[in-house]
Structure formats: C-alpha cells, structure tokens
UniProtKB/TrEMBL annotation:
<protein>
    <submittedName>
        <fullName>Uncharacterized protein</fullName>
    </submittedName>
</protein>
Length: 89
C-alpha cells in the first residue's frame, strides 16, 4: 500500500510561525533541517509573536535571538569558570 501524505485542514498559527522562522534560519545559516539551534530559534520567534499578538520581523528576531544566545553562553562560561576555580581550592 503506497504511503500517502496526510495534509491537515489547517495548521495552528504558532506552527506556521515556527515553520516560517525555521525556513529563515536554514536559509540564513545553510543549516540542515532538524538542527537544535534552528528549532530553538523557531520557538523563540513563535513565542515573541505570541507575546506581541502579531507577526514580528523575522530578521530582527534573529538578531535578538543571537544576542540572547551570546549572553546565555557568556553566563554559562562564567558559571563553569567559577565552578572550576572553586573545585581546586
């Protein structure tokens, strides 16, 4: 029996926004589909749109996501450095 693609009657607005952002991310970074960073950005974009209750500029969202991610990475590195320093005291 051949497999058939089931197409839903409609998709949620959140799902559509996530797919839009995921496509933007993949085009911008030449990433392969299914990567964790792409999904993270897609969720970030969808949540931002939901918070503002309207579609947001995906390019601006990407800039904000990169800045938030850089800040998070810096905090994580700082915490690990402190942990490493206290383990050798």
């Amino acid at each position: 029996m051949p497999s058939e693609t089931i197409v839903p009657e409609a998709v949620s607005v959140r799902y559509a926004r996530e797919q839009y952002a995921l496509g933007y991310f993949q085009g911008r970074t030449n990433a392969e589909p299914g990567g964790g960073a792409g999904l993270d950005f897609a969720r970030f974009y969808a949540e931002w749109c939901a918070r503002e209750d309207r579609p947001m500029d995906v390019q601006e969202a990407y800039r904000r996501w990169l800045a938030d991610r850089a800040e998070w990475v810096a905090e994580l590195r700082y915490e690990r450095a402190l942990e490493h320093a206290t383990n050798y005291d």
